[in-house]
Structure formats: C-alpha cells, structure tokens
Amino acid sequence: MSLPGVMAAAGVYWGYLGGILILLTGLCHGNSVERKIYVTLNNTAPCVRLLNATHQIGCQSSRNGDTGVVHVVETEEDLPWLLETGPTPPYMVLLEGHLFTKDMMLKLKGSSRISGIAVTYAKPPPPDGFSLDVPCPSDGFGLYTSDHGSQYAHCNGTVWNPLGNGFSYEDFEFPIFVLQDENETEVIKQCYRDHNVPVNSSAPEYPLCAMQLSSHMHAVTSTVTCMRRNSIQMSFSINPEAVCDSLIGYNVWSSLKPINVSGTLAPEDQVVVAATRMDSRSFFWNLAPGAEGTVSGLVTQLAAAEALHKVAENQTLPRNIMFAFFQGEVFDYIGSSRMVYDMEKGRFPVKLSNIHSFVELSQVALRNSSELWVHTDPVSRSNDSVNAEVQQMIQTLKAVSSGANVTLQEVNQSQALPPASFQRFLRARNIPGVVLTDHRESFHNKYYNSMYDTADSIRMKYPSGLSKDEALNYVTEAAQALSEVATVLAKTLYQLAGGNDTVEIKADPQSVTRMLYGFLVMSNNTWFQSVVRTDWKVNFEDHQPQYYVTASRSNLNTPTQLLMSVLANLTGQVVNFTKEQCQSPEKATDPKKELYEYFWVQGPLIENSTSRAPFCVRSTTHTHHAESPAFDLNEWGSTEYSTWTESRWKEIRARIFLVPSHEFEVITLALGIAVLLISLVATYFINAKADILFSTTEDSEVAY
Ligand SMILES: *[C@@H]1O[C@H](CO)[C@@H](O)[C@H](O)[C@H]1NC(C)=O
Ligand SMILES: *[C@@H]1O[C@H](CO)[C@@H](O)[C@H](O)[C@H]1NC(C)=O
Ligand SMILES: *[C@@H]1O[C@H](CO)[C@@H](O)[C@H](O)[C@H]1NC(C)=O
Ligand SMILES: *[C@@H]1O[C@H](CO)[C@@H](O)[C@H](O)[C@H]1NC(C)=O
Ligand SMILES: *[C@@H]1O[C@H](CO)[C@@H](O)[C@H](O)[C@H]1NC(C)=O
Ligand SMILES: *[C@@H]1O[C@H](CO)[C@@H](O)[C@H](O)[C@H]1NC(C)=O
Ligand SMILES: *[C@@H]1O[C@H](CO)[C@@H](O)[C@H](O)[C@H]1NC(C)=O
Ligand SMILES: *[C@@H]1O[C@H](CO)[C@@H](O)[C@H](O)[C@H]1NC(C)=O
Ligand SMILES: *[C@@H]1O[C@H](CO)[C@@H](O)[C@H](O)[C@H]1NC(C)=O
Ligand SMILES: *[C@@H]1O[C@H](CO)[C@@H](O)[C@H](O)[C@H]1NC(C)=O
Ligand SMILES: *[C@@H]1O[C@H](CO)[C@@H](O)[C@H](O)[C@H]1NC(C)=O
Ligand SMILES: *[C@@H]1O[C@H](CO)[C@@H](O)[C@H](O)[C@H]1NC(C)=O
Questions:
Q1: CA 392 to centroid of ligand 7, rounded, Å
Q2: Which of ligand 5's atoms lies nearest the C-alpha of 262?
Q3: Cβ–Cβ under 8 Å, residues 448 and 411
Q4: CB distance 625 to 338 below 8 Å
Q5: Is 383 in the pocket of ligand 7 (CB under 6 A)?
Q6: pLDDT tens-digit readout, 248-297
Q7: Region of poorest pLDDT, from 211-215, 383-387, 688-692
Q8: Dist. CA 553 → ligand 1 center (Å)
Q9: CA-proximal residue: ligand 3, atom 4 (nearest)
C-alpha cells in the first residue's frame, strides 16, 4: 500500500469518527444541556407527615422525590387527560386553588397516574369558604367524652366547623405542595404552555416540562412506633438519629400583680385567668396566618392587659389577674393541658385551686353588628355553686358591655362549649368560666385553620398609598371593633378581681391597630423592631408571621418572641439598668428578681443614625414550656393528652425541568456505546498499523 493510499484511508477513518462525534453533539445539545437546568421553586410550602397515638396523617414523596410531567388543571374538563388519555404518565398536577376541594382530591387520590400535586394559592380566596380541618376540632381531647358530658361528645348538638372537610387529618401517599408566589406559578404555567399543551388532542412532543417534589418523611405509622424507634436508636446506635419529634413550644403568661415564679401561691390567693390561644395551623407546613382563628383573640387580650396595667389602683386589687397565651392548642390542646398538668403537680406558681374564675377569648373579629356571645359549660353549671358564679360573671359582662358598642348575649344554656383551652381546665376542676366568641353556633370563620385566614378575612382595610409607618398607625375599623371587645374584657376582669366598677378602663384602638398590623400584615415595622430583645434573632419579614407550631427544638419561635416583646412593652416599665444588669439580674442585687423578667430591648432608631438606643424593660412576662404531658410521662399511646409528633425529613424541595423522551434516552445510550466500540476498534487498528501510519519521514524521503 502506498503512503498516500494509507493516508487517505486514515483520513476517511478520522472523518468518519469526527462525523459521528459532531452528529452526537448536535443531537444531545438540545436536550441534555437543558435537562440539567433545574429551576428551583423558592416559595412553596409542603404538606408533611404528622403522627398521633394511632395514625399517620399528611403527605410524603418517595425517597428521592417524585417526578411527573406537569399538567395544569384549571377546570374539571382537564381531568380526563390526566386520569385517562394523557400518554405520558405519571403526571404532576398543577391544581388551581379554587379546585382544591374534597371531590377533586378524592378523584386524584385514587389514580396511579398522579405522582404529586402542586396547588396554587387562590386570589381571592374561595368565596364559599375553605377549611381542611375537621368539623369537630380536637374531638375527644376536650371536656366532652364518653365519660363526661357524653351527650355533647363528638359535637353532638353543634358542629363548630361545618365547612371543614377533614383533609388536614388524612394520609396522602404522594407529595402535595402549595405555590405561594403567583410569579413562580406563572413560570411553571409558561413551561407547561411551551412544552406540554396537547395540540389537537394529540400527544405533545418531547422534551416535556416536568416537576419534581421532594418531601420524603422518615417516620411512619404512629407516634408509638416512631418514638419506640427513636429510643432504640438512642440506646443502640453510635450516632443516633430520631425519626420524629413531639410538637413543642412555649406558653406565654403574665400577671397584673407580680407572682414569685420560684414559689407557689398561698392557698388563699385568688387569680382570675384570662386566656387565649397563640397558634394555628393549615394543611401546609409552617403556613398558618390564623387571623380570625388566633390573632383576633390574642390581640384583644394584649390590649386588655395594657388597659389594666394602666389603671393606677391595680396593685391593690383583692385578686390577681393572669393572662395566659396557650401554644399548640390546635393539636389537641398541648399548651393548656401542659399548664393544667404542671399546676396539678405543683410545678407552676399558680395551682388550680387558686383559680377564681376563667375568661377565654376565642374568635372575636367577625361579629355581626356588635354581638358578642357568651358560651358556658352546661355540665359544670349543673352544680349550683358553680352556676351561681357563672351567672354572676355573665351579669358583670352584661353590665360593662352596656357602656360599650358591644351587645353581649348568652347562647342557649344547654349548648356545649366550643373548642377552647378552658375545656382542659374544666376537665380537671369545676372552675366558673366563660368563653367569648363572635359566633352563636358554628364558626363565622369560613377559613378556619387554613391558609386563607388572613388580614383580608377579618376585613382589615387600609386606604391605598399609605407608607409603612402610616399604615402601622392607621386605625382600621377592625381595630376599633376589637378595642371595644378589649375594653369589655378588661373591665370584666377588673371587677372579677374585686375592683371598683367606677374606675375608668379603656383599651387603646391605636395599640390594637399597631398589633394587628404587626401580627397580620408585616412584622417588619418600626414598633416591633424597637421592642424586641437585642439577643433574639427575630426573623423580621415583610409579611406576617406564621403561627404554626412545629417540632423545632430551638428556642422560642418568631411569633412567641414577638408576642412576648409586645406584651412586655405594653405591660412593663422602663428601668434604669445597664445592659449587664438587665441581661443577668440574678447577678445584680435585685430583690425582685423572682418576680420579673428583664428584657434588654433594641429601642428606637436614633434620629439621623442607623444605630438604636436600647434600654431595659421590666415586666411579668414569663414563658412556660409547652410539650404535651404524654411525652413527660412517656405515654405515647395516650388518649388523655395530645400525642402529635412531626416526622423528620432530609430535604424539602420543588423544582421544574425539561425531560427528554425515553426513546431519546435509549438512543443516546446506544450511540454512546457505539462510539465506545468504534473507538476501541479504531485504537486497535491504529496501534496495529502504527508503523505504517506514523512511519518515519526518513523512509518517505528515501522512497522519493
Ligand atoms: C429561585 O431562586 C434561584 C436562586 O436565587 C433562582 O435561580 C431561581 O430562578 C428562582 N426560581 C424561580 C422560579 O424564580
Ligand atoms: C389520630 O388521628 C386520627 C386522624 O385524625 C384520628 O382518627 C384518631 O382518632 C387519632 N387517634 C387518637 C388516639 O386520637
Ligand atoms: C410578580 O412580577 C410582577 C412584574 O414582574 C411584579 O410587579 C410583582 O411584584 C411580582 N410579584 C411577586 C409576588 O413577586
Ligand atoms: C389542528 O386541527 C385543525 C383542524 O382540524 C387544523 O386546521 C390545524 O392545522 C391543526 N393544528 C396543528 C398544529 O396540527
Ligand atoms: C420567692 O420565693 C422564694 C422561694 O419561696 C423565696 O426564697 C424568695 O425570697 C421569694 N422572692 C420574693 C421577691 O418574694
Ligand atoms: C335550647 O336548646 C334545647 C335543646 O337543644 C332546646 O330544647 C331549647 O328549646 C333551646 N332553648 C332556646 C331558648 O332556644
Ligand atoms: C359544686 O362545686 C364545688 C366546687 O367545685 C364543690 O365544692 C361542691 O361540692 C359541688 N357541689 C355539688 C353538689 O356537686
Ligand atoms: C368605688 O369608688 C367609689 C368612688 O370612688 C366609692 O364611693 C365606692 O365606695 C367604691 N366602692 C368600693 C366597693 O370600693
Ligand atoms: C425591614 O424594613 C426596613 C425599613 O423599611 C428595611 O430597610 C429592611 O430591609 C426590612 N427588612 C426585611 C427583612 O424586609
Ligand atoms: C414601648 O414602646 C414604645 C414605642 O417604641 C416606647 O416609647 C415605650 O417606652 C416602650 N415601653 C416600654 C415599657 O418598653
Ligand atoms: C440611672 O442609673 C445611673 C447609674 O446606675 C445613674 O447615674 C443615673 O442617674 C440613673 N438615671 C436615672 C434617670 O435614674
Ligand atoms: C437630623 O437631620 C435633619 C435634616 O438633615 C436636621 O434638621 C436635624 O437637626 C437632625 N437632627 C439631629 C438630632 O441631628
């Protein structure tokens, strides 16, 4: 073979190989590069797994996340494609918020063609209401059970949350996320329109837009199972890792007259308790705006506390007043059951026998005209002495409301109490007490424990064009109305504590409106900024805090820190302490260190400066550890106490990307193998003929 011949042969060969390479790069370019471009969805909230003594509820994905081709469901007509005809299952459903209903979910739940659901946040919220909680919240853990007041058990008589479909307590085998940001939803829809829309009902072509939802949960079956697994891990594993944790938080409490937290009250000391809850929930993790369900009562009670602390004679009242804010109440009364438990065990300065009477604020922002309803417990009222005291409380309430724009009315005496922390106290002792609400029978709240229970749902309206600081101080109608309720509450408490009805007590609409703004619109405001402790890493955000109670082992959550800061500001005094004295008063020779808490707060911004002027605030604001007694007692199967735990997880993630077809992937693989084989053959060929191909130039010259 002459050299030019060989060269030509080699040239053809290299050309051939190069051609394949170019062909492959060209083919792969469109897909494999794009395929690597994941777009992470940054504003989502997952549904996670929770467990109680006997069941698991919530959602989870498979270990590495579930993937499916995106299909947008905007009307019922989009369903057949999803459930029957679509050629590329499994599908990831992008469900319009207003279609997130029981009917729809039952259809989707049964189908193996669905790998997960991403729900959009409906704006405006569904007008007919939306509640995924059960119709009879915390059934079985309140006062009425088969052993006590059984004629009222299971909401026999009054169904409190008739709109509730109970989805929050069901178990889903696939991931469900909510998309909180319209713009992100639009990104997904655009991807869907560009790639997945069926043309003339023929199958769309690859590459398709796909979504992956990852929310794999470690715990299964029940709290009993997962806690047992935890304890096995703890005793046998070198590096133990729990699979679930109990839901946990802190109750907040304070008193009008300081109480020595190192001791217990004398038996003759009497305390009037004002109570409300401080948590909420929704179907999705850490999403719980709780405007009517939680914040309406919380803010009203804070305003009443402020009003009472302003009364000059308050330290000479015959009885003390205690303000309690309970955590974890939506999960079968975690906070109140723990307080009752600790009171019984003598681990709390106030004992059950010290409680003179109990006034609870439930949902109070949605009053029809000016009505405020008084609920009482028919079972305890069958005792004459208790009944007489309850009557007395109602008389007091009626008397003080006559001056205010509040029409106080009693519900039918044979009606049971609505869900309330007070039920846990009544379980332990017959305490005279009332629960105040805006509803006579079932809730006025159409969005009970859902993501739509927001400032809008309690009709908080601001004129447009207000700056942040103007909005903070703008007195809305909602705030005005709640301050009237707060005035009634404050006056009632004052008289129950033995005070004189001639004393002037009035809640301040200005502080009510600032609180509503901070707790429901924007925690990042100048007032909240100035009242928080400097050592608290509060997560100030340009939206409202979420009142969801989780299994977080870390210290106080953001709403608790905010609540305590505001409570201390409204009921405390500024004291002339240095930072060191304030942060560790036990070192200072303060004779009252057991009576007060000291907060070194950020203080207001100094004029024309970015630094703040911190100071020390002394108040009776205390925390109380709120973990269900079931975990103190290691009774994981308890039917007496809440047993809710939250599963642990490694990763929560939602993202979209383009997938190539299976055929394409197979072709890519086949071509890859082909190239490999050809290369091997080529290498062998080149090796074998190396002497000819790369022969020295000497020989060539000689040949010439
Ligand atoms: C989420 O954030 C990442 C990083 O900031 C960004 O690349 C991505 O585009 C965001 N996702 C969406 C849907 O905007
Ligand atoms: C656990 O939760 C499920 C679902 O809500 C409920 O049916 C069951 O009664 C609960 N178990 C206990 C012991 O409360
Ligand atoms: C969405 O995008 C629009 C226009 O880009 C912007 O004005 C709006 O603030 C964005 N909304 C959110 C919630 O980010
Ligand atoms: C869809 O069908 C219509 C009528 O059958 C036809 O005119 C149109 O070209 C089709 N479109 C595509 C993209 O095939
Ligand atoms: C608080 O109670 C403890 C224990 O009973 C006692 O030693 C202490 O002096 C009390 N403090 C005040 C200020 O009364
Ligand atoms: C109160 O309820 C009971 C039983 O539900 C009923 O018999 C009674 O008529 C009601 N009373 C009033 C005043 O509505
Ligand atoms: C009524 O309740 C009080 C206080 O709980 C109790 O001392 C009394 O014995 C009760 N009376 C009856 C008749 O049960
Ligand atoms: C209440 O105050 C009025 C006027 O200050 C006084 O006359 C009256 O005796 C007081 N009543 C009680 C029970 O202290
Ligand atoms: C809070 O508000 C201030 C002033 O309006 C602003 O500078 C800051 O960026 C905000 N912080 C957050 C986390 O939004
Ligand atoms: C409460 O906050 C206001 C406004 O920041 C401040 O003027 C006042 O001194 C504070 N009061 C207390 C007791 O912290
Ligand atoms: C505050 O305390 C410091 C020292 O502890 C003292 O010098 C100062 O006068 C006090 N100020 C007031 C207003 O009491
Ligand atoms: C803050 O700045 C304004 C305008 O620059 C000035 O009029 C004012 O005197 C300054 N205040 C202080 C306390 O320096």
A1: 17
A2: 2
A3: no
A4: yes
A5: yes
A6: 999 999 999 999 999 999 999 999 999 999 999 999 999 999 999 999 99
A7: 688-692
A8: 29
A9: 183
Euclidean distance between CA atoms 59 and 662, whole angstroms: 29
Going by alpha carbons, the residue nearest to atom 8 of ligand 12 is: 608
Could you give the CA distance from residue 149 to residue 163 in angstroms, rounded to a whole number? 25
The pairing of beta strand 50-51 with beta strand 645-647 = antiparallel
Phi, then psi, of 76 in degrees rounded to 5: -60, -30
124: preceding bond cis by omega (within 30 degrees): yes
Strands 371-375 and 433-437: antiparallel
Helix (H) or strand (E) holding 468: helix 468-473
Report the atom number in ligand 4 closest to the C-alpha of 199. 13
Q: Which ligand is nearest to the CA of 614?
A: 10
- CA 524 to ligand 9: nearest atom: 1
- What is the distance between the alpha carbons of residues 241 and 11, in angstroms, rounded to a whole number? 62
Q: What are phi and psi of 234, to 5 degrees?
A: -60, -35
Query: Distance (Å, rounded) from C-alpha 452 to C-alpha 133?
Result: 13
Q: What is the DSSP string of 231-249?
A: HHHHHH-SS---SEEE-EE
Strand, helix or coil at 601? strand
Span from the CA of 628 to the centroid of ligand 5 (angstroms): 29
Q: Which atom of ligand 3 is nearest to the CA of 186?
A: 1
Q: What average pLDDT does range 492-504 have in this prediction?
A: 94
pLDDT (0 to 100) of residue 698? 45
Helix/strand/coil for 325 = strand
Q: Which two tokens stand for residue 533?
A: 């402790």
- Nearest ligand to the C-alpha atom of residue 180: 3
Closest-lying ligand 5 atom to the alpha carbon of residue 260 = 1
d(CA 499, CA 307): 14
CA-nearest residue, atom 8 of ligand 10:
569
